[in-house]
Amino acid sequence: MFSERVQPENVEFDVHTDEMLINMGPQHPSTHGVLRLVLRTDGEIVTEVTPHIGYLHRCVEKIGENLTPRQFLPYTDRLDYLAGMNMNLGWALTVEKLLGLKVSEKTRHLRVIVAELSRIASHLVAACCYGLDLGSFTPFMWAFRERELILNLFEDLCGTRLTYSYITVGGVTDDLPAGWLQKCATFLDQFEPVIDEFHAVLTSNAVFIRRTAGIGVLSPTMALDYGCTGPVLRGSGVDWDLRRDGEPFCTEMYEDYTYQVIAETDGKYPQDHPYPPVPPAARLGDCWHRFYVRMLEVVQSAFLVRQAMEKYAQAGGKVDEPFPLKKKLPKGEAYLETEAPKGQMGFMIISDGSPVPYRVRVRSSSFCNLSVTSELCRGVLVADVPAIVGSLDLVLGEIDR
Amino acid sequence: MNAQSIHARLSRPFRPWLVAGDFEAIDPWIEVKREGLPDIARYLRDQRDLWFDLLHCITGVDHFEPDQQKAAQMERPPHIELIYHLSSTTHRHRLALKTRVPRFLEEEPSRLPEVSSVSSVWSAAEWHEREVFDLCGVFFLNHPDMRRILCPEDWVGHPLRRDYRLPAEYHGIQSR
Cα separation of A75 and B163, whole Å? Predict the structure, then answer.
């Protein structure tokens, strides 16, 4: 009976394992917070993923209905706590849109400095925690070393390291302290050469490429259909960045700045750069591309900070004072999305003429980016699930609000 | 295309469903009847010159005043407004599409108002509609998975309703 040769692939088809439901989270290190995924598995293959969210729900929208816009500001930087500055900026610009307020040139450049530094810090965490998810510990420590320097800069600026509330409605809380620009320039000088090290240890790492290239491919159509934005959308090759393509209130901030929107169009990334090329196994829209987009955006952000520092130093006058704490708001409604590190962060304010908004709405970028998980994780291996979820760069504080 | 020309473009096939519009507002909007919502949504997405491929957000706003005296001064009768923020990445235009639903189905306080889902038009709506259902209490018909999303599944009430009262206890946890 052993003489009958059985083809291995035929044997595989005969084997049926029981379906199993596996809980991943809410306390799972690779979910970056309290995200619970229920996996339906058939052996090693995941047939269905159901995300369960809400563990960090803090009723932010309800709180917004009971506070004036400036009182609400400290709640915004607790949404995406890895990029508090960008959250503050989103809310501040939305209220300014309702008020029809334009900030001075000096304030504008100052905002660009801190918003882009915050983007660098956020992308560093995103890219290198991703390495950690896939079993590479070193880049994680390196990224946190660099991020620490940015947090030190922010601490000098406003006294806090994560929840800044620095950019406020109407302006910023205070001007830069003396000697800050010099410190910032010193940071950039030492940071820019370090980026090569991240590329050496992750981007061109054979293990990393095997874990990410061709995994979780998100087509541009599906990305738009699910409302994915930010690096997730650009990783699928859609050339769309609100700093350039957004509403005037968002794009005016970046007027006269030179930078590239990072997205692969016509089979190549926009600029010639010394970083590793796209590996042959990678497909547009996979985990590797999403990671790569973030790493290239870091360079653009550093470039933007340099420009902004120069423009800030040249701009005359003072930075703007914040909008009065309890002043009445004009009647009306305003919705604005800004390009936060995780994607398009939207705020909406509806006012009935009193100092407290009638309704506040927070549109979270990670919320939409997460909703595509169940599509991406259909039919992958169990080990690919953390790779896919990690590549979306989720922050649960923002998803659950 | 600005909101006014989009309105003109819609008025040919959908005139009976267009209710109002404000093209001078900070964010220009068009209000449609809720019966026409799925058809108009599909039309907005599929027409080559409109091509609204990105649904940003669905917002539910409860227009209701629990205080009797203040309620008398309200301009409009109590209702829930749904706002759909759309944009087109190809044509770079934006639109806020609004629709209005009653606060309760057939004036019965135990029954949630109903509106057709647009999740077959934009998949992004799937989670946004779940959130509106959870927090504002609007039921979306033909939705593939109409469950709560942020609150626990056995939560009572819809927290962003203006007359919402926090339950005194939840599984033995005192709320005050």
Answer: 24
pLDDT per position as a tens digit, B120-166: 999 999 999 999 999 998 999 989 888 899 988 888 889 888 888 88
Assigned domain for B72 exists: no
CA distances from A393 to A94, A369, A389, B12 (A): 24, 9, 7, 44
The total number of structural domains in chain A stands at 1
> How sure is the predictor about B61, in pLDDT bands with cuts at 50, 70 and 90?
very high
Cα separation values, A240 from A66, A261, B158, Å: 35, 8, 36
Lateral strand order in the sheet of A45-52: A19-24, A36-42, A45-52
Q: Does some domain include residue A10? A: no
Asked if residue B172 is part of any domain, the answer here is no
Identify the contact set of chain B against chain A, taking CB-CB distances under 8 A: 25-27, 53-57, 59, 61, 83, 85, 89, 92, 94, 96, 122-124, 126-127, 135, 148-152, 159-160
- Residue B175 within a domain: no
Give the tens place of pLDDT for each residue, A311-334.
888 887 787 888 888 888 898 899
Range of the domain at A252: 59-393
Provide the shortest C-alpha distance from residue B13 to chain A (in Å): 25
| CA count, 13 A, side-chain hemisphere, B49 | 8
User: Is residue A203 in some structural domain?
Assistant: yes
CATH number at residue A283: 1.10.645.10
Q: Is the pLDDT of residue B32 over 60?
A: yes
pTM: 0.88
CATH code, domain with B8: 3.30.460.80
Does A50 fall in a domain? no
Q: Is residue A11 part of a domain?
A: no
Q: Which domain holds residue B10?
A: 3-67+77-161
DSSP track, A155-188:
HHHHS-SS----EETTEESSPPPTTHHHHHHHHH
Look at residue B169 and tell me if it is in a domain. Answer: no
Domain count, chain B: 1
Residue A69 burial by CB count (10 A; 0-12/13-18/19+): exposed, middle or buried?
Answer: buried
Q: A residues 72-111 near B, CB within 8 Å?
A: 97-98
Q: Is the ipTM of this complex over 0.95?
A: no
pLDDT digits (tens, 9 = 90+) for B88-111: 988 888 889 999 998 888 777 778
Phi, psi values for residue A376, rounded to 5°: -70, -30
The segments of chain A whose pLDDT lies below 70 read: 1-17, 29-31, 271-273
